[in-house]
Design goal:
Order of helices and strands of chain B: HEEEHHHHEEHHHHEEHE
Oligomer: heterodimer
Helix content of chain A: 25-40%
Order of helices and strands of chain A: EHHEHEHEHEHEEEHHEEHEEHHHEH
Structural class of chain A: alpha/beta
Helix content of chain B: 40-55%
Number of strands of chain A: 13
Largest sheet of chain B: 3 strands, antiparallel
Distance between the termini of chain A: 27 Å
Distance between the termini of chain B: 35 Å
Strand order of the largest sheet of chain A: 2-8-7-6-5-3-4
Radius of gyration of chain B: 22 Å
Number of strands of chain B: 8
Number of helices of chain B: 10
CATH architecture of the largest domain in chain A: 3-Layer(aba) Sandwich
Number of domains of chain A: 2
Number of helices of chain A: 13
Amino acid sequence: MMSASGKRMNLMEGMPPLPDNPIYLDNNATTAVAPEVIEMMLPLLTEHYGNPSSMHSFGARAGDAISAARDRIMALVGASLSNEIVLTAGGSESDNLAIVGTLRAYPEKKHLITTTVEHPAVLGLCRDLEQRHGYEVTYLKVDELGQLDLDELRDSLREDTAVVSIMQANNETGVLFDTEAMGQIVKANGSVFHVDAVQAAGKLPLDMQKSCIDLLSISGHKLHAPKGVGALFVRKGTKIRPLIVGGHQERGRRAGTENVASVAGFGMACELAQGGIEHENTVVRGMRDHLEKLLLAAIPDSKLNGVPDNRLPNTMNISFNYIEGEGILLLLDRVGVAASSGSACTSGSLEPSHVLRAMGIPFTQAHGSIRFSLSRYNKMEEMDYVAAVLPPIIERLRMITPFNEKRATF
Amino acid sequence: MWDYSDKVFDHFMNPRNVGVVENPDGVGEVGSMACGDALRLTFRLDENERIAEAKFQTFGCGSAIASSSVLTEMLIGKTLQEASAITNEHIAEELDGLPREKMHCSVMGREALEAAMIDYYKKLGRGVPCDLIKQSTIICHCFSVTKDTVKDAIFNHRLETIEDVTNHTKAGGGCKECHHDLGDLLRDCWDKIENGQDTGTVAAQSPEAVEGTGGLQSLGSLPEKKAGPKPVDHEPKDAAMVARIQELMDQDIAPNLHRDGGDIEFVRFNDNRVYVRLTGSCAACRSSELTIKNVVEAQLHEFISEDLQVIEVAQ
């Protein structure tokens, strides 16, 4: 690996040629738009560009597209009524509408509960509510495997708890929460129960008809629809006040002309996702498990983050001790593999992933954590390719680091 | 994705002089696992006291590895006197620039160089030449904060406790090993403040003989007074101005800071000076001075008056 002078390393030496197509393993960040989705969208941008509120055929075509999409979104989450689906501009808006909309509907209640490992869409909002709006927030802790304690939830509920917001599946580790058990505890207290299912939708079956969840957020771009579209399931009879006020759209719960083409695409993506749930849990899970097994076996001082047997089928988060994630990602990118990291350097902040830190993962592991998140478009041979290129990348970066099992820090 | 130059990529993917020099004349170790960046720099001098060999080991991102690599190339062939003139800006320039958020990687290089040179002089039993440490030594290794940075903060903001220092500079926020040194530094600075020797900036401070990161003698005792909320005092004639400032802070400035987990508090107003306190993540932010200038002062200038000056006070 050293050049003739012995002074220059080549981290890329002996790496296989780039694959024909880049290998995209960052599907929890965003996904490729499915060809069927694009096909559904195009006519709504070219010919049928009407405003669904208009009284002419252009408007009618657009309105039909929205209503067909709404039926498909309903089917994915198992809603029983079309007006239980409020269309939004994505996961963050759905989360904000759920939480702020509930707080506005119950102005006398000043407490909410969430977890330390939520997505920033919820955590950032909760911090703002605490700091600027006089709300009290309880953040439920997780254990070293990323799991919540139902007793802590039970003990945290108060008479003035307006809403409890908990994710269905963690975006970084894929760890699943038992939202049904939690929902029963929350409902017994008379609080509204919101679930952020942005990562779970399309990967796990959802059935709101059999659930005690009041509000459920989903996002288009995590399931092969375009960015900028999402939905909030609002159970019939759940009080919620709008964030965006204006026109009558979404029955006054979200004003603004519908994002017709994207909504139609989102609907198609939901239909494809629903049909693909079994595939996710067999084929995609199989690829994930295959890659995971190969990497953990081939790379010493590597460790899986999160409870192994209760995760999203597409997600794995592995820590490679003593090295930093950004270097791993840059080298992976050079060999045509896209993944993400919980390291501080990749986020531009000083702290590594809040999720891994909340799990008590030590710094030696948190900085070198890599998340691989698969989709139905991945192939088994791609897993073999990653399993071939990653071990030398880790080994070479470990030749550069001053740390090892004998000396974990200065 | 960061906008790295080709040169950063070259040094990251083809790092020069990786490893540890055998029988080194100087060893510098800075950073830690906790802060996500660490560098061990070793060098060996030839018979003419020029750096014959320099090697590095780095834990950190691509730009940290590149900064370390390019530093070793810059060092080889130089005397220690020449090497001491290498600043973090030089390291960044040599890499055709670094993204603003990544400048700390070049700072780490400069700090490791300094630490290695100090190690060399200490091993020889010689005093460390003052000009060699003109960029000051690191007092907090977790967050690579120099002693001058801490002194500056103590004098300019009249910091009284280690907690104040941590909130202002991050120093002492990690492993806490430097708390003893920070306590000494606080006592030293307050002694000067009480004797009227400080001018509000560190410019007037004379360089002391530096031994590692400690070495400051305890020169006096800290005032007992704890920093706490200070009463808002402003002249009645300023009431309208104060109301405008407070409104702007609450409605426009604070929400911007909230997005990064920070917050701001209006403390008092006097003679066109707006005293504020940064809290939350802003208090611990290395770029809080930039926040004050680019966010707070800029907004006050745009919406209220160009004459206002913003001054940050301790937590």
